[in-house]
Design brief:
141 residues, single chain, alpha+beta
């Protein structure tokens, strides 16, 4: 039984699509679209040279055009964790805070704290901004 070339191109497109899902490499999706273009070329009566040409031209064009656009527009979410997530947050003073020390409630936990500026004090109940974490001490202002 002789299978038409368009079936092989669609099988190739399906395999590339599955590989895309498994590996998350967008280039494989662009190659899959090229394989579909080759199947279309066959349906229009093109020989093997036209089919391979359609596959190559469409795949390369997609990779050359779409990939740089996608890379340029890719924004990674700024997910802060650990002490980076605490910087910039507000804390409530539990015990008077000065340059020598004190205590604040930060992110639901009690932290030792010290004032950023020498001579500055914060009284109980005040809200302060955390500017840094120095070891296990929140530096506030």
């Amino acid at each position: 039984m002789d299978i038409d070339a368009w079936v092989w191109w669609l099988v190739a497109a399906a395999v590339l699509g599955i590989a895309l899902v498994i590996t998350a490499m967008p280039e494989l999706g662009m190659l899959a679209v090229g394989a579909v273009a080759a199947a279309v070329a066959w349906s229009l009566g093109g020989g093997i040279v036209l089919q391979v040409g359609a596959f190559v031209v469409v795949s390369v064009a997609l990779i050359a055009v779409v990939r740089p656009i996608a890379a340029r527009n890719k924004e990674r979410p700024q997910l802060s964790t650990g002490i980076d997530a605490l910087r910039g947050r507000q804390a409530v003073v539990l015990e008077r805070v000065d340059s020598r020390g004190g205590r604040v409630k930060l992110a639901g936990e009690v932290w030792s704290a010290r004032a950023l500026e020498p001579g500055r004090t914060f009284e109980t109940g005040e809200e302060v901004d955390v500017v840094d974490i120095d070891g296990a001490t929140a530096v506030v202002m």
